[in-house]
Specification:
By secondary structure, this protein is mainly alpha-helical. The protein is built from eight helices and no strands. Helix 6 packs across helix 8 (about 155-180). It is elongated, with a radius of gyration of 18 Å. About 25% of the residues are buried.
Length: about 180
């Protein structure tokens, strides 16, 4: 049903119907923003990627052919834009990770939580791009393995391998961090 609804709205949006454009943005921007936020660990950059994703989508809509679900294609565009930004970051100095402590915690508990979050974010960002993307799509964004595989343009078996390697590496890095602290 969503596929049929998407096709109708895509056709209308491609023809310049602002209500159809707004409906597609309303439906898909939270997922795209969530993916970009988790991949980039920077809300401002994620918002820029989300906006650029939709701009590219609108430019491509008149010639778009539904070989994949619109949401899958849109997530792939966003993921590629995230990859581009991550590559640019590696060329410059790394920025600080956002402060994600719970304001309702006691100060010493908030510090512990902030250190754990920082360690996890650091470990995820140290993963190879495809492992980080697979983990983000499945574990953090709730995509099925089939959807994530389609977004990453790999087989489900390859995705499972990426996830297994990512989890193994994260586990090792986080355990190593505990023993060295």
């Amino acid at each position: 049903m969503a596929f049929t609804s998407d096709l109708d709205q895509i056709t209308r949006a491609a023809a310049g119907d602002p209500a159809a454009v707004q409906a597609l943005v309303h439906r898909y921007s939270p997922g795209v923003l969530g993916l970009a936020t988790r991949m980039l660990s920077d809300r401002t950059e994620a918002e820029d990627v989300t906006q650029e994703t939709f701009l590219r989508a609108w430019k491509a809509l008149p010639g778009w052919e539904p070989r994949a679900k619109f949401s899958t294609w849109l997530h792939r565009v966003a993921l590629n834009l995230c990859y581009d930004r991550l590559r640019k970051r590696k060329e410059s100095l790394p920025g600080e990770l956002p402060d994600m402590a719970d304001p309702h915690l006691a100060p010493h508990d908030a510090l512990d939580q902030r250190q754990r979050v920082t360690a996890i974010e650091s470990a995820i960002s140290a993963l190879p791009e495809r492992q980080s993307a697979a983990l983000t799509l499945c574990a953090l964004q709730g995509h099925s393995q089939a959807e994530a595989a389609e977004i990453l343009e790999v087989s489900v078996d390859a995705l499972e391998s990426l996830l297994a390697r990512a989890r193994r590496t994260l586990r090792a890095q986080l355990l190593e961090g505990r023993t060295s602290a």
